[in-house]
Structures are given as C-alpha cells and as structure tokens.
Specification:
Structural class: alpha+beta
Distance between the termini: 19 Å
CATH superfamily of one domain: Thiolase/Chalcone synthase
Number of helices: 11
Shape: globular
CATH architecture of one domain: 3-Layer(aba) Sandwich
Number of strands: 13
CATH topology of one domain: Peroxisomal Thiolase, Chain A, domain 1
Order of helices and strands: EEHHHEHHEHEHEEEEEHEHHHEE
Strand order of the largest sheet: 5-4-6-7-1-8-13-12-11
CATH class of one domain: Alpha Beta
Radius of gyration: 21 Å
Length: 374
C-alpha cells in the first residue's frame, strides 16, 4: 500500500462580506414588516410575533462575527432574503464548478502539479446544485484533468470523507494524484429569515491535493498517517429538499424543511462527546494521545462546540494556536471549515509535528485524519 500525502490546498473566498451588524439590520426590518402586516392575527393569538435578532445574541450563540457570500444584495433585501444567483445556460460553466475550479487551481499550484497529472477528482460538499452531470466531472473538464470524477455528500463531513476516499484510491494504486473539492454555497440553503439560524452559514470553496509521490515542488508536505470515519443516523440536522418535491401533495404551506433545519441543543449534546471520543480513539490507534498533537483543525460550526471538544481531549482549554478558529470570519462553511483552518494554520509547524483534521455534522457523520508534517 502506498503512503499518502496532502501536498497542496486552496481556498477561494467570495468578495462580499456581510457583518453581523448588517445581518441584524436586515432581519429586524423583515421582522418589523412581518409583525406589522400580521398585527391583527398576532393580537388574536393566531400567529406568533417574530422576535428581532442582535449582534450580541449572534456572537454569544456562535462566535461568528461575519461571513463571506456570493451575493450580498439579495440576502440583505428584506423583501427577498436569499442570494441572487442567475441560471446559466448548459454551455456555460456552473457556479459551483467555477468556484471549485478556482480553489482547485490554487491547490495544484501549491502542490507543484498540473491539472493533466490529476487522475481522480472528487467534489465533496453539503449541497449540489444539480443531480447530474456530476459537478466533479464538470470541474475535471474545466481544469483539464484526466482519469475520472464523482460527487459525494456527507453533509458537513463531506470534506474529510472525500479526503479519505482520495487517500484510499491513492493507497491502493487506483489513482496517483487526486483533487478533492469543496464548493460550498451555503447561502443558498439557509433560511435567512429564521432568527435561530440566520447567522450560521457563509460561502467558500476549498481544494486538497492527495498523492503518493509528491512533485518535490510543493511548499509543504503532510503525510496522512490514518483516516477514520463513522456515521450514526439522526434527524437533528436535516434538509428535505430533493427531486421528489414535486411529487408531494399540493397545498402544503410549510416548506421550512426544504432548507437547513436543526435542533441545535440536541446536536451539541450528542455530537460533541461523539467527536471527542472519535478523535481520542483515532489517535490511540496510532499510539498517540491528545497531548502529543500540536494542532487540531476542527469543524468550524460553533465556537462552543470546538471549545467543548478540545477541553474534553486536553483536559483544559485549548489555545488558539492549538485549535485555530476561522468561523469568526467565515462562519459555518459546512464541509469546508476544517480545511480552511488547515490551509491557514499549518505553515508554522515544523517537520515531525502532528495534527488532527476533523469534521462532524448531519448524519450524524464524523471524519478525521491524523497528519504528520514531513
């Protein structure tokens, strides 16, 4: 079996930033209009009045201060409150493929590889804009990669699961150089009018190059010592949108479940201990303890979740150097968060340093990689 390495990463960041202050102004104006429009029904008790949001509430609940989005105007328009992303003709590259290819090229440049040397492309993210043809195959074509490609979705664990699939293909000799892409347009599946979650998500695209024989031109080299994945069914994080929507009975008024929904408190209570145990067990398989790890690149969904997990692992609060945080700037980017953290916070580690990349989310699903700087 071949050794496997991460030889390059890339992150494409949208040009538009929405601060918490801007988000609160938009939501509160929507709330004001809704309550005014439905004042009679609210007074009769037929409709529950909506409650305003605040910057303090958002930052206390999540640790998020801003987010990047593909479209800002549509999200902040109180009459709309979702992004404007124009449909493209079939002879034009799709928006997901476009941002995935941009991140992919960055990763290839960092790895010292040309697209033609890639023989496996995996698009691994939480939501796809179409069932087929695969976004991965479209990106493969756009970049000029060889081999084959496919899409995969394990919600917020898609990125780490995708890296595992790439590493397995490389270990077995089925592929020599794999490109794992995470084009996450989370603004499209978020209900921006829901006070409990309107602040959670942002947009981004990530890319990771996994190979057995590094080019020698890469800036940094990380050996994947081992990968571990687990799933356990739960409906506490869910999105029911799909191609069977049109088959449902007509007249249904509640479509809230066609976007992101979650039972946040249940998720925290159940997933955090699972993730901490998963990481500890994974390290033990390699003869390591949490104290032996120089860096934890954790899923960037909620600051309190990461603090709980690192505290459970280390027996104390982790420093920002030990467990970097990027969600304050990027918000929750679904499967991309741990990869952004790895991309931005690994250059300072010396050869021999050990790190853990871990993501967790809907499913439930948890994926992790034990990495060592070469």
């Amino acid at each position: 079996m071949n050794k496997t390495y991460i030889t390059g990463t890339g992150v494409w960041t949208p040009p538009n930033v929405i601060t918490n202050e801007e988000l609160v102004v938009s939501l509160n104006e929507y709330v004001r209009r809704f309550n005014a429009r439905n004042s009679a029904a609210i007074e009769k008790g037929e409709i529950v009045a909506l409650q305003p949001s605040s910057v303090e509430f958002i930052e206390k609940a999540s640790g998020i201060k801003q987010r990047y989005v593909i479209d800002k105007e549509g999200v902040l328009d109180p009459d709309r409150m979702f992004p404007r992303i124009a449909a493209r003709s079939n002879d034009k590259i799709s928006v997901m493929a476009e941002i995935g290819a941009l991140a992919g090229q960055q990763a290839l440049d960092a790895a010292g590889r040309s697209a033609a040397e890639v023989d496996l492309v995996i698009a691994a993210c939480a939501n796809f804009q179409r069932p087929y043809p695969a976004i991965a195959i479209e990106i493969q074509h756009a970049l000029g990669c060889g081999g084959y490609g496919y899409d995969m979705n394990v919600a917020c664990s898609s990125g780490t699961f995708g890296i595992e699939q790439a590493a397995n293909a490389v270990r077995s000799g089925q592929a020599r150089c794999a490109l794992v892409l995470g084009p996450e347009i989370c603004s499209g599946h978020l209900e921006w009018r829901d006070r409990d979650c309107h602040f959670i998500f942002g947009d981004v695209a990530t890319a990771v190059v996994v190979e057995a024989e590094p080019s020698g031109k890469q800036a940094r080299l990380w050996e994947i010592l081992g990968s571990k994945a687990v799933t356990s069914f739960s409906s506490n994080i869910r999105n029911n949108s799909g191609f069977l929507d049109r088959c449902e009975e007509t007249g249904r008024s509640d479509q809230r479940d066609k976007l992101f929904v979650q039972e946040g408190r249940k998720v925290f209570k159940e997933v955090c201990p699972m993730a901490a145990t998963h990481i500890s067990d994974h390290l033990a398989q390699h003869g390591l303890k949490p104290a032996d790890v120089q860096r934890f690149w954790l899923h960037q969904a909620n600051l309190a979740m990461n603090q709980f997990i690192s505290r459970r692992l280390l027996g104390r609060d982790a420093t920002r150097e030990e467990a970097p945080v990027v969600l304050d700037q990027y918000a929750n980017t679904a499967s991309a968060g741990s990869i952004i953290a790895f991309h931005q916070h690994q250059a300072d580690l010396a050869p021999g340093a050990t790190g853990v990349m871990c993501s967790f989310g809907a499913g439930y699903s948890i994926g992790s990689h034990v990495l060592q700087r070469v």
